Amino acid sequence: MTDTIDAQPTVAPIHSVEQTRKVVTEIPGPKSRELHERRRAVVADGVSSALPVYIERANGAILVDVDGNRFVDFGAGIGVTTVGHTEQSVVAAAADQLQDVIHTLFTITPYEEYVRVAELLAAHTPGDWAKKTVLVNSGAEAVENGVKIARKHTGRRAVAVLDHAYHGRTNLTMAMNYKAHPYATGFGPFAGDVYHAPNSYPYRDGLDGHEAAARTIAYLEKVVGAADLACLVAEPIQGEGGFMVPADEYLTTLQAWCTEHGVVMIADEIQSGMARTGRFFASEHFGWQPDLVLSAKGIAGGLPLAAVTGRAEIMDSAHAGGLGGTFGGNPVACAAAIAVFESIERNGLLQEAERIERTLTAGLERLAKRYDVIGDIRGKGAMIAIELIQPGTAVTAKQPNPEAVGAIVEFAAQRGILFLSAGTWGNVLRFLPSLAMTDALIEDALTVLDDALAALG
Ligand code: PLZ
Question: I want to staple 200 with a disulfide (CB 3.0 to 4.6 A). Which of 119, 212, 258, 329 is the partner?
Answer without folding.
Answer: 212
